[in-house]
Amino acid sequence: MRFRVIVTHVDESTIMDKNPLSMLQRRARAKVDEVVKHPRVYNLSENAQSLVIAADSMAILRTQTFGKSNGREDAKIILKALMGKTHTFATAVSIVLMDKGEEQKRWEKVVQTKVTLRKLPPAELETYVMRYDFTRFAAGYALNETPWDLVTKIDGSYTNVVGLPFEVFLPILRNLKIII
Known about the structure:
The chain is 30% helix and 28% strand. By secondary structure, it is α+β, with helices and mostly antiparallel strands. The chain has a five-stranded antiparallel β-sheet. Strand 3 and strand 4 (102-117) form a beta hairpin. Helix 2 (72-82) packs across helix 3 (122-131). It is elongated and about 55 Å long. It starts with 19 loop residues before the first helix and ends in a 5-residue tail after the last helix.
């Protein structure tokens, strides 16, 4: 079984919705649909099965949403807004099974996890944002790359906060007998 990461040409910023969970699902769906509709562009085999997986994540605090930061200063603004509070970290997943170029089955789910961040003193926040490229991570932090105790509590899926909720993904892989 070969795995590869592909980046779609979907501009997520054009997919907006007042409901953040709906927006996330629409974005994940748009990414998977882009690959499904253009298999040759994304080098999908037309003679074999492919499992196309797309996801989108963000943090939600009351009515505010936080996606990827635009740089260090933006990451600091996002983290300051989230520190000392509990927010919802949500990931929408859209998965399509392709066989010989045709869509066979589709799964979609949004997973929500409550995450509490501690307040970092200004100097520690500065050091934190200098160490990593937070433009790659929703909400300006990466649980699996955080060396300090920034995250003080997780209520729900740990793998959701890392980036891909395994409780959605693994049963599909087992059902398809890709893993046992």
